[in-house]
Every structure is written in C-alpha cells, then in structure tokens.
Design goal:
It contains eleven helices and twelve strands. With about 375 residues, it is of the alpha+beta class. It holds the Pfam family Fructosamin_kin.
C-alpha cells in the first residue's frame, strides 16, 4: 500500500525528511492500522497473528494494538509503534535499545521489548514492538514505590564502557540527542546542552541574550557545577536513565498496581539527570517535593550535596530547551533563559547576562503547561 508523499514531505521523500504526521497518515489510512508482514514475522513463533487496530495517540508516531493467539489457546496483546523517515528509525531504534537495557535490570518496570524492524512493503517505515500493558494513567504513582524502583534501576545499571553515553542515538520525544561516549560527565552534559540549544536555535529566531547566556553556562557554569563531581577523588557512577521521565511516560499496572515507565530514550548519565525533567513546566505530578525527597532517601544526592538544587536546575534546562526546540514559540525558552541567568549570577557573574526573575521561575510559581502527549501503551 502506498503512503502520502505530498510536497516532498512524506516518508518516501528522502532519509532526512521529518517523520510523517500521524494525523495525516491516519486520514490517509481511514484510521486503519498500517500492518505489514515484517511485524507478523517479528512476533514470537508461538503466537499467531489475529488482528491489528489503532490504539492510543502519539504526536509523532502511529500506535496500535496487535492481538495474537498462542499455541496454548490464550490471547496475548502487543503494543506497536510505527514511525517514518530517518528520524523515525532513530527514535524507534533508540527506544528499542533503551527498553532492552532497562528491562534486563527491572523487568517489571518497563513493557517487555519484543522487536524493532523495517516494513517490507513500505520504504522508510519502521516499527517498535513490545508487550501490551493495561495501564492506569489517571492515578499518580505511589512516591515510595515508584522512586524505590527508579533508584534501584539507576543503582543496578553498569555502563558497558565505564563512560557516560549510549551505543546508539536516542531521542527525547522524536528529537535526537547527542549521547556519544565520554569519560567526563561535565564534558558530556556540555555537549548535550549545546546540541539541544543548537536545535532550539534552528526552530526559533536568534536571541542574542540567550546566546550569550548559553556560552557562559557551557564555558563556566557547567565545568564549575559538574566538574567538581569527578574531582578530588570523587567517583561518579554512570547510571542508565530513562531519559524523558515525566508524568506522561509513567503509568500504573492495573493487575498489580505497580508503577511502569515507557517511551524511553536512555543513556548512561549522572543519576540526578533523571530528576531534571521533574522541574520542567510539563511535569505536574513529579514536581511535588515528595517525589524528589523519596528518591533521595533511596539514592542520596552527590557531593557537594548543598549544590543538588542548582544541579537540578541546570539539568532541567536541557528539558526546557528540548521542548522549545520541538515547539516553536514556546515560553519554556524564556524559562530556560531565566534559569541560565540564575546560575550565571551565582557561579559566573558576567556583564550582558540578564537578571533572574523569581516570578518567571515555575519551581516557585508552580506554573504548569498543558502538554501535547497522550498515553500510547494501554489506557
């Protein structure tokens, strides 16, 4: 079956094209899930394909539910995500590799990954297949249970190289991240930060004051705040992190009431990096102090502990700038700049850096935004 490629923007246009809009694909398919023989072949040998249907929503992929029948006569459901173009391949392969790394550590904390592959009948169409989990998204996860699992995942992980990074490119949403291996966490975060800022600059217009702040944060604040984590004999463990852990990527299993995460874009990082997303305006539940406090009971803050909140602010800037890069005109860009001003005032006072304003700080005002994301694996 052919797919739309109008104005050269469809999945067959070229490898660098943005992934096809799920909305446009849905309209073209009359809301029928775009099944392919490659997906059937990827199912476990003991399972026979029965049906496929559209299920859940995603801002950048087509999602569905596949029903199978086992040799034992029992039904089993799988969750399927399909994306297009080179961006789609990178995002879904990153989720596949991330989910495998997490599932090995905490098999009950993420849906079991089953397969990643490319469609046979459609060029540049890719899929990620996992177990289907029936989830509750309306209830907040128990802070004690959730943070204990998360901390155990961080503690139990082991970087295969001993460095920070990941063996494939992963994504925050559908935005590729700079996750090449590095021994220095300060250097790794600097490059990740600068890359996200570059993507933001490509989406939004040039803002000279922001550019100046980015330069000072990269050259002075990051080395000061993060460099000390590996100085004077301090060891900083590279931990596997989910990479995009906010309220919309967590659910509760209906059968066990245990928390479960999904849509991972992982890399080996300072474990506190995971908590940076919780400070961002798109986080509502996790911004509550009880989640941070409970987590720190399981995995204490790194030394110097008194700088934990400043590191959390620094890590949140990546989340805000990444959101801004994907949403032209988002005011999270202003939030990120305000956070940069705070850190520059404190750690690298420099002429030309704007003033920090408390009334623009969501960690003080409590301001949240309505997000574009929807549950995609279970309802």
């Amino acid at each position: 079956m052919a797919y739309p490629t109008d104005e050269g923007n469809g999945p067959m246009a070229n490898d660098e094209a943005a992934p096809i809009s799920p909305k446009r694909c849905s309209a073209f398919m009359n809301d029928i899930f775009p099944m392919d023989d490659a997906i059937i072949k990827a199912l476990p040998e003991s399972k026979t394909f029965v049906s496929a249907e559209r299920f859940g929503k995603s801002s950048w992929a087509v999602t569905g539910k596949i029903m199978t029948l086992g040799r034992d006569g029992l039904d089993k459901a799988y969750f399927i995500k399909v994306a297009y173009g080179d961006n789609g391949r990178i995002a879904l392969n990153g989720e596949w590799e991330s989910s495998k790394a997490i599932h090995v550590l905490k098999f009950d904390f993420i849906p079991k990954p089953v397969a990643f592959g490319e469609y046979k009948a459609q060029p540049l169409a890719y899929f990620y297949l996992s177990d289907f989990v029936d989830m509750d998204f309306k209830s907040a996860p128990d802070p004690a249970e959730f943070t204990a699992k998360l901390a155990a995942m961080h503690r139990g992980s082991q970087s295969p190289t001993g460095d920070f990074g990941f063996h494939v490119t992963t994504c925050d949403g559908n935005i590729p991240l700079h996750v090449r291996w590095q021994k220095s966490w300060s250097d790794f975060y600097r490059d990740l930060f600068l890359d996200v800022c570059k993507l933001d600059r490509e989406t939004n217009e040039m803002w000279l004051e922001l550019e100046h702040a980015i330069e000072i944060v990269a050259s002075k604040v990051i080395p000061r705040l993060l460099g000390v984590l590996q100085e004077n004999g301090r060891y900083l463990k590279p931990c596997i992190i989910h990479g995009d852990l906010w309220d919309g990527n967590v659910g509760i299993r209906r059968n066990t009431e245990g928390s479960i995460i999904f849509d991972a874009g992982s890399y080996y990082a300072h474990n506190e990096m995971e908590l940076g997303q919780w400070r961002c305006e798109f986080a509502k539940v996790f911004r509550g102090k009880k989640y941070i406090d409970r987590y720190l009971e399981n995995y204490p803050a790194a030394e110097p502990k008194e700088e934990f909140d400043d590191r959390n602010r620094l890590y949140s800037i990546k989340g805000s700038m990444n959101y801004s890069a994907g949403h032209r005109g988002s005011h999270l860009r202003i939030t990120a700049y305000n956070d940069m001003c705070y850190l520059c005032e404190k750690y690298a006072p420099t002429d030309g850096i704007g003033k920090y304003y408390r009334d623009l700080d969501p960690s003080i005002t409590g301001v949240c935004i309505a997000t574009h994301a929807f549950p995609a694996n279970g309802v």
